[in-house]
Design a protein that fits this description.
mainly alpha; two-stranded antiparallel sheet; transport; cytoplasm
Length: about 260
């Protein structure tokens, strides 16, 4: 923890492009990210006594406090740094989604902005990691909602349902990413069922050709039928992925792809 704190004190004020694009600074940042990723393989870090035991999650989350403000668009142009940052983010989201949702609001918004940019801007590997991180957060959110627990991240995930809806239907989509995309999409739909219905209705209303509109409606009814089981168990995920594959194959040809 002390190492991360020291790095933070030395670097939090150095957020200009001139500073962070220096090779030495970038290498330090890369080493810190890799260190935090490796720490996540340990549940408890033992520094010699009961009083000195620290949760690996707490160290990683503190590290994110330090790192996220430094991850500008210029820094993310460095492929290795970009990849390692999204790897760390995905690990934390997968292993400690509840802790992620309790990050300070500004920090969490910055993190989610990074994930949104990661969906489209840095290649398929980063897109996959961003989808996996979203899936973990949305799954945690849905499971908590089922227990009638209020989840701080619920509202912001609604925005990502729209983002992924447009990404899958209205933009060029790499079908090699179907599995992580399907899992994230299903989890987001489970979190925001009514909003998903609004998105479908809005897309249908935009169609000027009634034949196309009916084909699209039929396809949506196959993808998410009214009696669809809202569950994130393995069988439901597999079935939804297959349905999404068929759905995209049937509608992408006549929807406007940007």
């Amino acid at each position: 923890m002390a190492l991360v704190q020291t790095y933070g004190k030395c670097n939090l004020g150095k957020v200009s492009e001139e500073t962070l694009t220096e090779e030495e600074q970038l290498n330090d940042l890369l080493l810190l990210i890799k260190l935090l990723t490796n720490l996540l393989s340990k549940d408890i870090l033992d520094f010699g006594s009961e009083d000195q035991k620290v949760s690996a999650a707490d160290v990683a989350l503190y590290g994110l406090h330090v790192i996220i403000p430094l991850m500008s668009s210029e820094v993310l142009k460095f492929p290795v740094l970009c990849s390692e940052f999204f790897k760390l983010t995905t690990y934390v989201c997968e292993m400690y989604p509840a802790k992620m949702s309790l990050l300070p609001q500004d920090l969490f918004k910055n993190l989610m902005t990074s994930l949104e940019v990661g969906l489209t801007n840095y290649g398929p590997d980063v897109t996959k990691m961003s989808l996996e991180a979203l899936s973990s957060l949305a799954t945690h959110c849905f499971l908590e909602i089922q227990k009638n627990v209020k989840v701080p991240i619920h509202e912001i995930l609604q925005h990502f349902l729209k983002t992924l809806f447009d990404m899958l239907l209205l933009q060029s989509f790499d079908m090699d990413l179907l599995q992580p995309a399907a899992e994230a999409f299903l989890a987001l739909i489970c979190c925001h069922q009514m909003y998903y219905t609004e998105l479908v209705r809005s897309l249908l209303a935009q169609q000027t050709d009634q034949v196309v509109c009916q084909r699209l409606l039929d396809a949506f009814n196959q993808l998410t039928p009214s009696d669809m089981k809202l569950s994130l168990d393995r069988l439901n995920k597999v079935q939804f992925r297959k349905s999404l594959d068929v759905f995209l194959g049937s509608v992408k040809g006549f929807l406007c792809v940007k």
